[in-house]
Amino acid sequence: MNIYLAIIIASLLATWFLGVLSDRLSAKAMLPAPPKELADVFDEQTYAKSQAYTLASMKLSAVSETFNTLVLTLAILAGGFNLLDIVVRAAGFGPLLTGLGYIGGLALISGVLGLPFEIYHTFGLEKRFGFNTTTPGTFVLDRIKGLVLAAIIGSVLVAGLLLFLRGTGQYAWLLCWGFAVLLSLGLTYVAPTWILPLFNKFTPLGEGELRDKLERFADKAGFELSGIFVMDGSKRSTKGNAFFTGLGKRRRIALFDTLIEEMDADEIVAVLAHEVGHAKLGHIKKRLAMGILKTGAVFYLMSLFLNSPGLFAAFGMEHMSLYAGLVFFVLLYTPLSLALSLMVNAVSRKHEFEADAFAARTTGRPTDMISALKKLSATNLANPTPHPFTVWLEYSHPPVLARIRALAAHTN
């Protein structure tokens, strides 16, 4: 049996199995009553609803992942990747346009196959539990905008990679690495101004107690903000959130309007303090460095396997090409990608604990962060007791119960 085919199929099945195992373990780890630390926000009805939401989400994820794994496995074994290559080549375009057509075709097929699950998630699952506020028009418009944006950015990225790989010899991976990193940083820089407003409305936070408290904290922490904005998150969901976006002087904080409705000013200050903690403690720079190094490792490994005849034979390809090699390497890379994601998530969870501690220390009010976490957990119907295996496998943030217990140490 082709060794590449064996690795890819085994990786797909192993990833699927780990997901199923994770869901089963977390389902069994659910408690009959909420932990005592959350009893004040999870009454009996809310806790039962959170369990039902968690189980329903698990079932949808299991069906989706099973479907995707089955379709991809069949496509590989039945020669589907070669069939698409034949169709695209028949158009008679040059190597670059053919490559863009091939990768774009795969992305489009993947999107179409995943659309029914997205529709059910939004208008079935999320609506049933009272979260969805998305209209059909907004949903369709979001998908059209996302498709156009992905086509533009994806075409620039893929075209650049193919041009470098074709014309720069054995060190092409270095140029691909640099190009991908620069493109990513550029998108992060312009996202607040050009990309995010395509999907949401960002309004400067008005004068008042909340703005005064947020600005006072930022000044106290020595953290410069280019702006504090309210995002119309209620346009799509009742769930609350907050995030930083942009780089350098274009860095700004966005508060969901739903978050402002759910929390008082001191709790929102604690949320801001947590996000500021990530910047002041160097987490953002560390994550950026990790991402850049990871990208470099990926391109180096890609250069070793990109032109391997065995890799193309695993997919039943009649012709070898750089564009197909890129796709096949992504699938071959699955085991290493999983291992790296486990490491990255472990570091991320550590950073979240540190940012929580920073918020508790700098505000002098750890109870505000605890209260904010409790409210988010209850209003978002989060599962407060996921199994440790699920946390290890999937979570970039520690479970809310672990964060509350860590913060409680700062109240003594």
UniProtKB/TrEMBL annotation:
Q: Which GO terms describe its molecular function?
A: metal ion binding; metalloendopeptidase activity
Q: Which UniProt keywords apply?
A: Endoplasmic reticulum, Hydrolase, Membrane, Metal-binding, Metalloprotease, Protease, Transmembrane, Transmembrane helix, Zinc
Q: Where is the CAAX prenyl protease 1 N-terminal domain?
A: 34-201
Chain ranges of the Peptidase M48 domain: 206-409
Biological processes, Gene Ontology terms: CAAX-box protein processing
Q: Which cofactor does it need?
A: Zn(2+)
Give the enzyme's main class according to its UniProt record, as a single word: hydrolase
| Location of the protein in the cell | Endoplasmic reticulum membrane
What are the catalytic residues? E275, D356
Q: What is its EC number?
A: 3.4.24.-
Please tell me where Zn(2+) binds in this chain.
H274, H278, E352
Membrane topology per the entry is: Multi-pass membrane protein
Task: Tell me which domain of life the UniProt entry assigns to the organism this sequence originates from.
Answer: Bacteria
Q: Where are the transmembrane segments?
A: 67-88, 100-123, 143-165, 172-195, 297-315, 322-344
- What's the record's note on cofactor binding? Binds 1 zinc ion per subunit.
Q: Per the similarity annotation, which family is this? A: Belongs to the peptidase M48 family.
Q: What is this protein called?
A: Protease HtpX
Q: Which gene encodes it?
A: htpX
